[in-house]
Amino acid sequence: MSLISRVLIAALVWLAAGSALAQTAARSAPGPQRTERIEAELVPMSAWAAPGSTAVVAIRQQIEPGWHTYWRNPGDSGGATTLTWSSPDGVRAGDIVWPVPERQRLAGLMNYGYSGVIYLPVPVEIPATARAGTTLPLTVRALFLVCSAEMCVPDELTLTLDLSVREGAPPPDPRHGAAIASVLEQAPRPAGIEARIALDNGVLTLSAAGGPLAGRDPGPSYFFPFEGGVIDHPAVQSGVWGPQGLTLRLLPGGSTAADGLTGPVAGVLTTAHGAFEIHAEPGAALIGTAGSGDLAVAVDGGAPPAAAGPTGWSTFLQAMLFAILGGLILNLMPCVFPILAMKAASLASSAHDVRRARRDGLAFLAGVLTTFLLLAGLLLALRAAGEAVGWGFQLQSPPVTAGLALLMLAVGLNLSGVFHVGAGLQGVGSGPLARLPGGQGAFLTGALAVVVAAPCTAPFMAFALGAALVMPWPMALLVFLGLGLGLALPFVVVSLTPGLLARLPRPGPWMERFKNLLAFPMYATALWLTWVFSRQTGAEALALLFAAGLSLALGAWLIGAGQAERKVGRRGVLALTAGVAALLLAGAALVVTARLPAPAAGPPAATRSSGPTSAPWSTVAVDTALAEGRPVLVNFTADWCVTCKINERTSLTSAGVAAAMERTNAVYLVGDWTLRDDAVTAELQRHGRSGVPLYLLYAPGSAEPRILPQLLTEGVIIDALQDVNPRRSLP
Question: What stretch of H or E contains 6?
Fold first, then answer.
């Protein structure tokens, strides 16, 4: 059967199903509904709706790999998702706020649609007569045309949501609020862009000027018309740009080629700086939309510019080199200091046993590489599934942060001699995990090193990780292994070099005191992780974490007491049993903590310390400041990123930087990645990064921002601001 025949049959099935299924809709239970191809759910953006307000709900689609649904203009085949609402009197659902679609090429066709996880937001008007304390039952019959390369299936699902009505401004929904808000923020909307379109000699010329297009290279650009038949969808869109905007050259579609331009053309124009709705009137090309250079061609699939080109061997080898160098430098980053302490103790204990030192070195390397491989595989799998995550993603999860805080506390207690793992008091002074039999301790120490090092991004790592995330997965995994090799290399080299080991002091009583001293970096790490957890959650969750820590400490002390009794010939059953019970209680408190809902997040406010005033980052805030002729300094940070906090404390919030920003009339924006934020993740990826910190300095009239070093000084920032606006930099 030909491709065209399959398309026609799919269209007939789609129409027939829409007619038949419309008669059989019934209200289903709230929650996800699914078929073999798609899971869908009606979810809210806010925890409740206020009387007389406009709430936002969304159709969340989770589409199976190999399948896709469609945008409002499906392209050359397919059909848009349609919604039929059944709601109480006075409740009115608006139109879908369509996210920018992917470009899906199939043989000679081009379709516009979605894959993976996608939210379709819908505004819902709540009547002023709605009573607080009640719920509004919303029901929508969603008809999806779900297609693969071989077939299309119409799937109808009836989705329901009981929307609470309460007085006051609602907080975001803890599960879906941030994701829906991110979709709304990035959704195409009018932006003061003037557009013209003309048909001449069989070519459509679309010019757009003004607004966010003025004064910078638009980058890869593409036009999605709202109506089919206007353009030839599979044809490459090329063009030029100028000081005021851009001009795209398009091939006309079937209706345009047959009848010519019969009126205005509306659609979405995507650029490297965002997506915008435009309304192009028939007319000649606008002035200032050519003359500065050719436009980069947008690639199919909607991939970011960094992923447009194929990955060559030269890029791979450069990424490998930078990964190894970044891993080496990672040993000097503050977040790895506690693990350096454990490695130092391990080296000291085995310095004069060459065979054991070699075994521990190789086991440590294996632990580092295995854990890097697992983290990288999980990261790549999540991104392939449509999740917007980056390096250090695990610490964006409060339960993971809480679990690591308790683990660091346990490590510190073990180093302090409260309890012992393995051979008891005379084990080895190499830290708790390293005292397990054989090389298991060294292996687990390497694994812990990677977990603790994950929040850090060292110099050279940024390019390596950014390149890895757009490479084929075998190459990407090799780059991550190169990073692990760099992290483990100093310890491995020393452990395999007898001459270096011989220079270390011989084991003795000093090792026990040294081991006790090394407990304090672990306590400091536990306190830091607890502070991060407090920033991610609320007071109730923090109190539960304190209770879990207290139970853990009590359990460790009781187990230590039982071990001491066994050492002198007693059974120590009571103490050991009570210790295990206390540890189970700590685990239960951790589980309850993990299940607590996220705290309500109020609107972010500008802050002021001794440094410059800050405001939350958004692409709109950047564009607004640049339109006013003001430089913009953007700080992408996270509370769990130690390097970020040091830069902020020593450089970004200094009085000198504040004075320089005031002289240059610069705007300071902060993109907080402490909790998952898909908009921040997308911006990091656009600049070839997969983690924080990232510092961008935008200059009015420049196409792209300047990327500042990851290790900042006050002088670096002040000099960069002076370069951006030298006329206003001097007092």
Answer: helix 3-21
Q: Which two tokens stand for residue 381?
A: 């799998």
Dihedral Cα 310, 316, 317, 321, nearest 10 deg: 140
Instruction: Compute φ and ψ for 700, nearest 5 degrees.
Output: -55, 130
User: Does an H or E element contain 325, and which?
Assistant: helix 313-330
Inter-residue long-range contacts of 468-475, CB under 8 Å, 24+ positions, other chains counted? 468/319, 468/323, 468/376, 468/690, 469/379, 469/380, 469/383, 469/390, 469/685, 469/690, 470/303, 470/306, 470/307, 470/311, 471/311, 471/315, 471/316, 471/319, 472/311, 473/380, 475/311, 475/316, 475/319
Closest residue by Cα to residue 583 from 399, 410, 434, 416: 410
Q: What pLDDT is stored for residue 422 in this prediction? A: 45
Kindly report the length of the chain.
731
DSSP collapsed to 3 states, 552-588: HHHHHHHHHHHHHHHHCCCCCHHHHHHHHHHHHHHHH
CA distances from 23 to 110, 175, 400, 667 (A): 33, 33, 47, 56
Tokens for 541, please give them.
């969750």
Nearest to 457 by CA among 361, 322, 617, 338: 322
Instruction: Supply the Cα-derived Rg of the chain in whole angstroms.
Output: 29
Gap between the Cα atoms of 333 and 453, Å rounded: 8
Q: Which strands sit side by side in the sheet containing 69-75, from one edge to the other?
A: 69-75, 109-114, 102-106
- The whole-angstrom separation of Cα 666 and Cα 662 is 6
Measured distance CA(261)–CA(254) in Å, rounded: 11
Given the structure tokens 């993109």, which residue do they identify? 671
Go through 695-711 and write b for each residue having 16 or more CB atoms within 10 A of its CB, e for each that does not: bbbbbbeeeebeebebb
φ and ψ at residue 123, rounded to 5 degrees: -75, 140
Identify the burial level of 474 via C-beta atoms within 10 angstroms of its C-beta, where 0-12 means exposed, 13-18 middle and 19 or more buried: exposed
CB 452 within 8 A of CB 338: yes
- Find tokens 């019969």 and name the residue: 262
- Contact assessment for residue 172 and residue 46, using Cβ atoms and an 8 Å cutoff: yes
Q: Are 342 and 518 in contact (CB under 8 A)?
A: yes
Best CA proximity match to 55, nearest among 27, 83, 91: 91
- Pairing assessment for the beta strands 194-200 and 274-282 based on DSSP bridges: parallel
362: its two tokens: 């190789």
For residues 464 and 483, what is the distance between their CA atoms, to the nearest angstrom?
8
The residues, any chain, with a CB within 8 Å of residue 177's CB and separated by 6 or more, are 44, 45, 46, 47, 171
CA atoms of 156 and 14, how far apart (whole Å): 10
What count of other Cβ atoms lies within 10 Å of the Cβ of residue 347? 19
Measure the CA–CA gap between 587 and 593, rounded to whole angstroms.
Answer: 10
214-251 pLDDT, tens digit per residue, is 888 888 899 999 998 899 888 888 889 998 999 999 98
Mark 415-443 as b/e (b = at least 16 C-beta within 10 Å). Answer: bbebbbbeeeeebbbbbbbbbbeebebbb
Q: State pLDDT tens for residues 644-666.
A: 777 887 788 888 888 888 888 89
Q: What confidence category does residue 456 fall into, taking pLDDT thresholds of 50, 70 and 90?
A: low
Phi-psi sector, 661: left (phi>0), alpha (psi -120 to 50), beta: alpha
Helices (H), 496-568: 498-502, 509-517, 519-536, 539-567
Q: What is the pTM of this model?
A: 0.44
Q: What is the structure's pLDDT at 475?
A: 78
Distance in Å from the first CA to the final CA of the chain: 76
Place of tokens 């940024």: 462
